[in-house]
Amino acid sequence: MQVAIALFPRVTALDAVGPYEVLQRVPSLDVVFVGERRGEVRTENGFLGLTVDAAFDEVPAPDVVLVPGGIGTRSQLDGPLPEWVRAAHTGTRFTTSVCTGSLVLAAAGLLDGLTATTHWALLDTLGGLGAEPVTQRVVEHLPERIVTAAGVSAGIDMALRLVALLVDDVAARAAQTLVEYDPAPPFDAGHPSRVGAEVMARIAEYAAVRA
């Protein structure tokens, strides 16, 4: 089964690489990084380069589409990426997103009237594109073949769920063990509801630098 992970300028690295690390552990899944053209794209802060191995027109019918997020999604809401997602979705087993990748799915018309999730800071934006935003970590619409994940690290959870859906629960547990995904964070700070004003002010400071 072919899994196509889309890349574009200013993508969030872990949105793509986190699911990749899970999915590529399963021998029956062939992961390819796709984009508008072959070659390198730089992540959202420009520090890291990721390589597009195949152009969209070279991967017209993947079994799974995965669209990561990042600041770069804002400039990808029309044009080749949503057009490819819309066309590929007609034959996918699952079309998925991580973080603000769901904005691209919405722009492609795939989330109209469906609950979906994204990074907490962009839930209103997602709602403005026709989806019904919710704060769940992973949202599934299996009859519609749509799965969305919340911000960044949630992509790992979604990838494990995809392995269970595509193969079986044993494969998902094996992949989880292989990557030693056993989170025990040192701080209970994974969502704005669990932090105070000081942390939120620092987030705003960091976000202003990256904008």
TrEMBL record:
Pfam families: DJ-1_PfpI
Gene3D superfamilies linked: 3.40.50.880
GO biological process terms on file: regulation of DNA-templated transcription
Domain DJ-1/PfpI: 2-164
Protein known as: DJ-1/PfpI family protein
Classification lineage: Bacteria, Bacillati, Actinomycetota, Actinomycetes, Pseudonocardiales
